[in-house]
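Title: Prediction job returns without error message
Component: structure pipeline
Severity: low
Priority: P3
Assignee: unassigned

Description:
Job completed but the reporter wants confirmation the result is attached to the right record. Sequence as submitted:
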Amino acid sequence: MDLYFSPLACSMATRVALYEAGAEANYLEVDPPTKTVLKDGSDFRAVNPIGLVPTLRTDEGVVLTENAAILQYVADRFPQSGIGTGPGIDRTRLHQWLCFIGTELHKGLFVPVLDRKAPQEAKAYVLEKNLSRLDYLDNYLKGREFLLDHFSVADAYLVTVINWTMATPPIELAKWPNLKAYYERLRQQPSIAKAIAEEFELYKAEQARRKAAA
């Protein structure tokens, strides 16, 4: 498999899932501004015309896009890892959390706040409207170790998104103690700790490249 990713982006969730599954993959870094695959200088848009990570090419050559779909594919591809669920209501709950994280948190809250070109008024509106999503999540996580009854790809996605609070000062994680405890606990999980450490180093290298090119 080939995973196209950018450091500390939402694609890190798939890296976590693959590590948790003990799966082999080629990790191909994409430069966000130029959409260039750093390994060979190729145009990433030839693989995914939208130019967004994660993008996964399966062993059969099928190209998959969209984070939630890729995470479910990895969970189904490696059922022995336990990061997915069986059929029925448990699978529906997994879908529910992947959708919530992707729409309410990832795109609805963090992307606008992280957007350097977004007006401050727009960011203030997003925070006023959408911080209640973190209130809901904090209440749900009270007394829970994971989103489901075990670690799943939904947790991999949630930790990846909550990790962005390091770059969003208006979202102070201490305001949500259950979410903060969840995040700090899961950051110690080997697959997550490894992914964050590796991608943080790649992120620093990416920032150095941008500074040198400026």
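Comment from assignee: result matches the submitted record. The longest strand covers residues 26-31.
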